[in-house]
Amino acid sequence: MSEHLRPDILGRLRTRDAEERARAAQQLCSQVTDSEAIERHGEQNPLYVELNTRLVKLLNPASDILDRLAGTAILLALVDVDSLEDKQKFRITQQTKTQLAGSEMAISNEAVAIYKKLIEKRWASVMSSVETEVNRCLEWLGSERNEVRRMTALRVIEVLCSNHLVPLHSYLTKFFATLSNPLRDQRSEIRVAAARTLGACMGLIPMSERNVRNPGLNFLYEELQRNFQMASVEGYHGALLVSQELLQHGGMYMQSHFGQVCDMALKLKEYRDPIVHKAAIALLPVLARYSPQEFTRVNTGSSESMMGRACNYLITLSRTSDRDRAAA
Description:
Elements: H1 7-12, H2 18-38, H3 46-58, H4 65-78, H5 86-100, H6 105-121, H7 124-127, H8 130-143, H9 147-162, H10 172-178, H11 188-202, H12 215-229, H13 233-249, H14 258-268, H15 274-290, H16 292-297, H17 306-318, H18 322-327
Helix pairs in contact: 2-4, 3-4, 4-6, 5-6, 6-9, 8-9, 9-11, 11-13, 12-13, 13-15, 14-15
């Protein structure tokens, strides 16, 4: 068994091909685990020591982006190594959290993927700091000007809520309030990410409480109305996104607001901005799935049902430009 990491694999780590980079990282980690199978050294395994030394250099903020991507690929592969000791897990957790605080979107994307895997594995080193991470994310969303960090914060909260961690239930009010501004952010990518995060947050609400008496859902619907009343691209888009998340994750809540949301979708379906236009069209099938009976008999102020008006519009749209045909 070689006492050093294979140089040919190390060289492949700096490729721009993400799949090749991942394969190289997995092969390096396999080399470490194979040596452990022969003679268990744990943290003192010479190959692991060498790998960690290289990791520290690769993940250094002064390193170029290919080095840091190589480092995150190794971290992601290491998480699946079964023989890791607690000290090794703690080090990987800290290294991941450091990368989450960076300002490069490519690195942030990889760090969030690693963090998601750590949460799914319920490592003690990451579970013990969940609330600290939540507070850091809330701080970034409330005051951080760096757009990468704001996007990272949204994605980390989404990961945490999607895993239904009990301590997060007490943060729901803060989450809903903090997401108000990202949902009408100037950047559409931020708005879309905020909506996904909102849906994950709503997943923490017990199904029996997803009704018109829920103060959190009432707050979201009031925000939806405020966004719509802004009469701007950001406001309209935010209102449509929140509507979709409430329909998909709000249980019975939207039954009492179904007609209003149908009217909004119809009003915005021909809006001049393509982002709003597409979001309004995307909302139509969500409405139809939510309440098929209501969708066919909603009073839309004309002789046609909501279903009739929506179908006629989509048929007309499909006969126009390629862009509109794809949206329909």
